[in-house]
Amino acid sequence: MAKEKSADKEQRKKEKKASKEKRSETEGIHKSKKDKKEKKAAAVAEDIGATTKLLNAVEEEKPGSVVIKEDGELQVKIKSVPLLGALVPFAKPLADEKAGKKVLKSVKKAAKSKALKRGVKEVVKALRKSPTAVSGDLPFAIVVIAADISPMDVISHIPVLCEDHSVPYIFVTSRTELGAASSTKRPTSVTMINKEMGGKKKDAEREVEEEDWGNVYSDLVKVVARASKDGVQGVPEADQTFYNDDEIS
What we know:
Blueprint: H1 2-61, E1 69-70, E2 73-74, H2 97-112, E3 116-118, H3 120-129, E4 141-146, H4 158-164, E5 169-172, H5 175-181, E6 190-194, H6 204-227
Parallel strand pairs: 4-5
Antiparallel strand pairs: 1-2, 3-6, 4-6
Helix pairs in contact: 2-5, 2-6
């Protein structure tokens, strides 16, 4: 009887020891997995943080550029040309690289001359208040639209409004570049360049500025005309004598 009790006691000790070893082994596995997860999460967080800093730095230096991770290591690769998104299918006329630079330069000068309206709401409001017929040699405004807008419904109605009110329009490839040219830090979907400068001050300096702006605006009208294959968008055929290719330098 005593031997049986001793054997049972010994058996319980062995079972207890085995259970303890098994539990210790299981805890070790869990701990190892937990450590790996924590290390991985920390590495990802560090990677994201570094990438974000680089992206912000690059965006400030050249909006639209990108940072790329190669061969599993974080390496900076700045594109000389901004990365473009998908363009809306109705982006016609679309400025090519050369014309696009001229258009954006004109937008920048328009912002400086207070002859610029920005954003869908402001441009649509101005279009609806504008006359529906062309008066004079030049249109009273030109609309510049970014073609990389999503969803496209945001701007799809603007070309129709421009045509209804005889306002020439042209698309550029980047809303980021259009926003930068418009003297704003945010991407811009559409701008309206007015023929007349803003402000009411009249002096000799103002007259010189108006003359300079008039020349810039005339050149812009020609650029928009050349970008359009079938005449100038929004200008009736009878009024297109000014935009004849023979007259566009």
